[in-house]
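[job 0412] stage=fold_complex status=start
inputs:
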Amino acid sequence: MAATGNDAKFFTRGKIQEFKAELQDAARGKDKKFAKRKTVLKKIVANITMGNDMSQMFPEVIQCLPIPMLEIKKMVYLFLVSYGRARPDLIERAIPHFQADCEDRNPLIRALAVRTMAYIPLPSVATALIEPLRHSLKDGDPYVRKTAAICVAKLYLMDHRIVEREKFIDQLKELLKDVNSTVVSNAVAALTEIAERSDNIVLKFSYSMATKLVAALENCSEWGQIYILDSLLNYVPQSADEANTLTERIVSRLQHSNSAVVLTVIKILLYLMNYIESKQSIEYLCKKMGPPLVTLLSSGPEVQYVALRNILLIIQRRPSVLKDDVKVFFCKYNDPIYVKLAKLEIIYRLATEANAKVVLAELHEYATEVDIDFTRKAVRSIGRLAIKISTAGDPCIKVLLELIDSKVSYVLQEAVVVIKDILRRYPDKYLHVIPLLCEHINLLDEPEAKAAIVWIIGQYADRIENADELMDNLTYTFLEEATEVQLALLTACVKLFIQKPQQGQKLLPKILKWATEEVDNPDLRDRGFMYWRLLSTDATAARTIVLGDRPPVNTDTDRMELGALDQLLLHTASLGSIYHKTPDTFIRFAKPKSLPDSPALNPASKRALISPTAVGPPKPVSTAHLVPPIPQSLRTMQDEARTTPQTSSPVSLQGPPGVSEQPIASPVSPSAASLQTPSRQGTTDSDQLQQQRPIPPPKPDDPYANLDSVFGNYVADQPRPVGGRPGEFDDLLL
Amino acid sequence: MISGFFIFNQKGEVLITRLYRTDIKRSISEVFRIHVVSSADVRSPIVTLGSTSFLHVRHNNIYVLAITKNNANAALIFEFLYRFISISRSYFGKLDEESVKNNFVLIYELIDEILDFGYPQTSEIDTLKAYITTEAARSEVTDIGESSKLTTQMTGAVSWRRGDIKYKKNEAFVDVVENVNLLMSAKGTVLRADVDGQILMRAYLSGMPECKFGLNDKLVLDKAERAADNAVRLDDCQFHQCVQLGAWGSDRTISFIPPDGEFELMKYRSTSDVHLPLRVHPTVTEIGTTQVQYSITVKAGFNSKLSATNIVLRIPTPLNATMASCKTASGKAKYVPAENVIVWKIPRIQGGSEATLTAAADLAATTTRQAWARPPIDVDFQVLMFTASGLLVRFLKVYEKSGYHSVKWVRYLTRASGTYQIRF
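[job 0412] stage=fold_complex status=done
writing structure:
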């Protein structure tokens, strides 16, 4: 039935006066089968689409309402939905027609009338809607009931007092028990939306309600299944048995062809798994989830993207899901860039000793591709691979040196940064690469890369013969450098001086003077003074402090804290899961969600639990709103670290040299990364791991506590919402 | 949920606007035009500005867009946009700027029905077509009995099928279509080989037929203790809304009441023992900085009674290639400078035989020293009556209370399109 219409001719800008005349003529003269009026209405709809203001047509269009032709009625209704709000004075004339339609014998007409009325946000329409809506919610026809259910949500957003006064919520609750599953699913959707908007309505399901809803799944549309599955978050299991039974009853939905059904089932399974204690059950569910997740990668690129961003979260929380599937994440040459970048974030996390070789070969391939973000991230991933898997260190270094040899500027810069991290992981193993890096010093022009090479020279000054020459050259432009480079230079000079006093003694005073007298940046000045005093008071102490042992780097910090993950996973498949932010941090009016406590909550999840009180509502203007909620204990810890950096404990004196390794681009703030507390790698089930060892909060003196995500400062390609403050763009758009 | 639904053409002109909620205005379309349509570098299908998120899918020369101000389910929105596209294609044959303009009134009717307050509702094509019809076949649904039947169907457990379908001859066609994904390294090792399969059905069956469908699924055959050498291990299966998932979950039977006409019964994935229909052996040599020489051989590994057709190899050339000469005895090869590839088209290769191409690309002198990234060679092809996974349809049983006889047909097709890649 591919008979296509022929309406393109109406897509031209028309004049209101002409339309008015045409409609009036048609109404007066002969209009066989209303064809003339239909044509004019089509022109009007086309003009609405093109953005021409047609509100002046109101009186004439309303006169078409009595025409007994569904197609015309629908166009008039569309007009009323578009302009009803603009002409409250004229809408009165339409109301009797609506009310008559609400009592039509044809259920399609009845539903259409209620549905349309509820789209017009005017008090007079809302008042006129009350009675018809009450009847529609009890209509004999399921189609009318399912339409009316959504209308309650519409009305609630328009004026919640009417809904409360007329007890429509109670009627909606009744519909949860409707015999028709489609009606049930729409009632669930409406109630969920109302609860999300309301201050005093909380949706809570008992176990028997939850099982009733699950039973309705079999008979409702795919979309209805999603609404129902989603609403199961309103049910808190009181025992592991309850949770187990529910998972058994929904797990077969993983085979649905609609990816949104699959992801929503996964969301609920992950949620319920927090209330299941049996290792076998959890392992079984993890195993069940893997294949459908992989299948999502055969969907359209947009769905693949959603899936990939969620997979990144899921494998952090449940590492056994997909643990043997790294190959499915290898990029196709023609994948869209957003799919490639999302895959790349997953690849090194699934690397093991066994597959490291294949993974490295693959990353090497990517590092020579054209897209700059992609190649850079590939190089970063090679670095992470080397740090994660010690046996991969040698081949990774080999590949990195090969890449450096290609002399492609951005690849070179990334490689230097990455090698710095590898040197920190294996301090004495790869010293032979240092001279090779030094050959390329002049090609480095990005602050992060410069800071990296400066760190290397300072750290290994005693092994580099001409360290003083190199430093001398590098400090030549000291005053023009970015702060992170200046900080690195300062520390490196101190290190040089301590290791080779002869070579450093000429350079150091110059730098200290610049840092303390010529530079405006307080961080740099303070650090300059600190070194100065330290060196002049106690040179031995200076040596132990500046060249002290560094905590080893590892990729464990790449994993988000369990509690935060549990919270984010409550938003699986949603926008929040794509940005890895809880919605209340970037969406106005979004309510924070947290994993509810219950006697059934398993010990691992309980330990990681972030209590709702710690979450709190987002503050209107603060930096905190861009960051996933931080447990209170953690927050105060950081505040302390910030306000009393060096005096509170003697240990923290070791801080400054450590901190100096980190390019500090912005003042230390509790960032997303601060949630990434160390946890041991290699175990397949993070639950197990947490039982062995509770998560230590980052120590205030841990220089890596604020490591700004795995990829250092390089977050250019991280998906994120644009526009700092909520409201900034809203005003612009409304 | 969805606050607004839009369609844009490539110029950023609005072809369809429908606002479902008052939290956005029509003028928001400008923001999308600026940030996505006229932006040279769109790096995500989702753009979030403040609390407002724009989720779009490109199809032919249009953008289909949904806007939301909530933390909406992104997978649901994209699935809905895909569904809109497939509904439109079923209605208009194709979805592009021209067909949108020609059918805009109908599209408004459709999106009023399939989205209510931004919540996707009935989207079963068959049901929609029963009462939202194109001009040519427009008949008013005025009969109350007819309407009630429709509404019951739309909200019922078998929302995809009308009960009163009658055919003189009851037939069902099953098409097994496999897309092969291959990624082969320069050394000839298979990095990744898997099959995305689809089972498409065209059911022309009367009444409410209950169907049972059987494959050579390893798990099923093993359980039945039927020694089967050719059983296939399926990594995962996903089914059409009509398939009873509970039954599949308990004993892996596929039972369903099909929609009328064409639909995708299931999708599956298989990664074990993939038979690669075509093997490509490239030898690519860079002669100094002035020339690249190619010798490419394609071998058809399958039964000699079958043949691969419409084979197209796209062989990348360096960006600074000025010309390329190609020689082959099979098909035609041509250098396409605009895309930096040699396109080699072979109409047919018989199973067991092979074809060879030799070519040389001359390079212009350049100042950049960056090495050539060497994108992979891409091969498109089709092989009829062959499945790369080895999947076979064992049976399709149709039960209807009237007990009619039905005729079933099965076809197999294996193909690759942009997913069969060989590095060199």
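[job 0412] summary: Residues 615-714, 730-734 of chain A have pLDDT under 50 and may be disordered.
[job 0412] exit 0
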